[in-house]
What we know:
The chain is an alpha+beta fold. It has 2 domains: 1-65, tRNA intron endonuclease, N-terminal domain (MutS, DNA mismatch repair protein, domain I, 3-Layer(aba) Sandwich), CATH 3.40.1170.20; 74-165, Trna Endonuclease, Chain: A, domain 1, CATH 3.40.1350.150. 32% of the residues lie in helices and 27% in strands. It is built from 5 helices and 9 strands. A 5-stranded mixed β-sheet has the order 5-6-7-8-9. Strands 1-2-4-3 form a 4-stranded antiparallel β-sheet. Strand 7 (112-118), helix 5 (125-137) and strand 8 form a beta-alpha-beta unit. The longest helix has 13 residues, at 125-137. It is globular. It starts with a strand and ends in a 6-residue tail after the last strand.
Amino acid sequence: MQELEFTEDYLIIRQKPLILKLRSLGAGVEEGDETRITYLEAAYFAERKVLDLDKEDLLSRALVKDGLAREKYHCIRYLRERGYIVRPSLDGTGYLRLHRKGLRPGEDKTYYLIEVVPTSWQISPGGLMPSLETAGRLRKELAIAVVDLAQERPLFIKFGRMNFD
C-alpha cells in the first residue's frame, strides 16, 4: 500500500508519524489508519517543509476544480502564519473554516466562514444573501476575503445580519 495517494480531491497519507504531525498542526481529517488532506492545505505544509512535495504541483491539482485556489492558498497562509487554524470546508462548498486562535478542530466549532473572492469582486446586497444565509444556518460569522495576488495579502470584510423585531 502506498504511503501517499493522490485522488481527485485529496492527498491521502498513511505514514503514522506524518499523520501525528499533521494532527498536531490541526490539518487533515483522520479516517482509520489514514488522513485526508486537501491540496490547498498540503501546498501550505509543502511550503513549510512538513510534506516533502512540490507546492506548485499541489496548487495545480487544486486549481483543476477551484479557480480561486491561489487566492485561498494565500488566505490560508496568511492566517496560519498568525496562529489560526483555517481549513477548506469538506462539505463541498467553497468556504474556508476558521477556528479560534489556540483551538484545534474537534476542540471547538468553526468560528468564521470565509468566502474568498478575487480583487475584481463586485456584488449587490441580494447577491450576498446566499452566503449570509449559509453562515446563519450554520451559526457562524461570515467574512469575505478579497485577495490581491500581487500582494499575497487578503483584506477581510466581516458581514452579519440584524433583525429589529
